[in-house]
Amino acid sequence: EKLYPELLLPLVPLVVSGYSGNVLVAGTHRSGKENILCGQVIVRQLIEDFFNELNKMTDGEWFTTVSFVQFYPDDTAVDLLYPQNRDLKPVTHPVLGIVIDNVCEIVVQTPGDAWKLYDEGRETQKATTGNLISRCSSLYSISAEKRLRSDSECAEYSLSRLQVFDLAGGAFRNDLNGISPLLKVLDQSESRSTPSDSLLPVVLTSALHGNCYNIILLRTMAPGSLVDEETPWALELAHRVRGLTTRVSPGHWSPQRTTHRLRTVIRELRNSIVLQGESGDDETRELAGLIKTLQVVKNQDWEKKREKSKENEEKRKKEHVSLKLLKIDDNLMEQSAKTYRDIQEKIRQLQEQLKKEMEEHLRAMKEARQDFSLTSTTDGKVTVDKNQERVGRIQELREAIREEQRKRKNADQGFSSSQKQEISSKFQNANYSCDKMSDAELEYSQALNRRRRLKEEHGDLIHKELLKMEQELEAEKPACKSMSPEGCCLCHVQDEGQAVEVQRLDREREILVLQLEALRREKAEAEKDLEAYHHRRIQEMDSLQAESLQVFRAFREVFEDQVETLEKRYRGLLLEVIQDAVYLSTRNQELEAENKQLEHALAKHRDALTVERGLRRAQQ
């Protein structure tokens, strides 16, 4: 009850006012962290209060996005909002600090949308991680950007960021559950060793030592560990985190000024490379890093983020539809398999019962044939009644087996018509929710738009440089004229003209270098798209091959099922013939017994008539 109001609630208004805040939940006790994050709805309360504070500020326009990333023990990362995205890399923003490149950022308007994405991410984490979930960490981030000045030439923004870390691992190095990434980062910073370039250590280092207002450490332990060796280590880790100090400043920045500054640095570095005539590995890496940082700054544009968010939503929707259809198919297949197994079990039981009845009937008939003698009419009737009752039970069992076999045949042919209609309707509804454009066409149009925007940006940049060069040359000509005395010699005028020409050639060379760099970037983008198309083509070929193999496998299974069905049918016919033969044999024996009884009764009747005739003759 006191955890959220006393520790977390004061952090929200400070974050919304233009700062960054981090909440760290660490420990090896998975259920304890689940209780803190979801059981006590800490994350939901943070989201609601965050949006409530945003709604209180009506003096500017807000732009809010959400991201959710999971980190495996081997330092690999996966995007929980779009699990297909695994190419996540840390990039240093000149003002905002560490930014995760290629992360799926979804634009949200309400706290319900943000909480829904968090809940979906948790479900994805449980479904994809499996038994490793207790050893995986995660980062849920909400970023809210406010436009302070809407001037197109020098717009200014304020960034508020709230990050919730779920960190796995123990507080001491011999823990069987692994070492906490928090402990690793603290040891690296204190030993001043080379920091790791993996995503989680970089993000954690930025959170511990970067521009953030507050860090809150919540350490969860198992109930049995309150008296073991983990407790002092956990307290020591909390004390080390508490002793950290950071420099706090508002996250205000201007994209135009930042872009201009980066381009100036890039131009100076290019000029130095051109003057040196050759570039070393360090200069090349520095130039590539500056260009990547410039691209990250451009990607912070709101319109680009909205467009990217729509693309991510479409991808997530298609992925959700695919998983939903796969789940429906699995459920129906499981239901059909269960029905088939029940029918098979019932047929087996009926066949066992029929086998027992036939064995008992044959044994009874054999005993009756061996012990058959002239008996009374009453005993013969009792035997015939028992045989008829037993044969009736056998016939009922045969009819029941035939009925179950018909049900099994219907189950083999596929789902029922209602199940097929259900799948068809759900598939149609899922298709209506997706875009009509195929994945290949969508990726092709996106690649064209990227290259077109890149070409336009390069054209604008080169045009601006040309205009700037002409303005500088025009400004230098009057200066040269004003600096020359009236009686200067022709040689001096020629030297000044040559100096202007040399300067113009230097500027043209800079512009040519800029054009070459632009063409190199466009070529790299085209090669990247071509490689993506090549990989997609390979995937399509693999999927077609897998589909063909699946079709052949299904055909083989159908053929084997048909062979098995024919074999079962012939066996059933043979069993019916045997049963009919047994029935006819039993009926023949019954008729023979009745004939013998009739012959015996006729003999008695003849004897009685003979005796009666003898008496009559004696009386006469």
UniProtKB/TrEMBL annotation:
Keyword line: ATP-binding, Coiled coil, Nucleotide-binding
Coiled coil ranges: 502-608
Protein name: Kinesin motor domain-containing protein
Keyword ATP-binding: yes
Similarity section: Belongs to the TRAFAC class myosin-kinesin ATPase superfamily. Kinesin family.
GO MF annotation, one: ATP binding
One GO BP: microtubule-based movement
Taxonomic lineage of the native organism: Eukaryota, Metazoa, Chordata, Craniata, Vertebrata
Biased composition regions of type Polar residues, renumbered to the chain: 413-424
InterPro entries: Kinesin_motor_dom (IPR001752), Kinesin_motor_dom_sf (IPR036961), P-loop_NTPase (IPR027417)
Gene3D superfamilies with a match to the protein in the record: Kinesin motor domain (3.40.850.10)
Family matches, as PANTHER family: RIKEN CDNA E230025N22 GENE (PTHR40710)
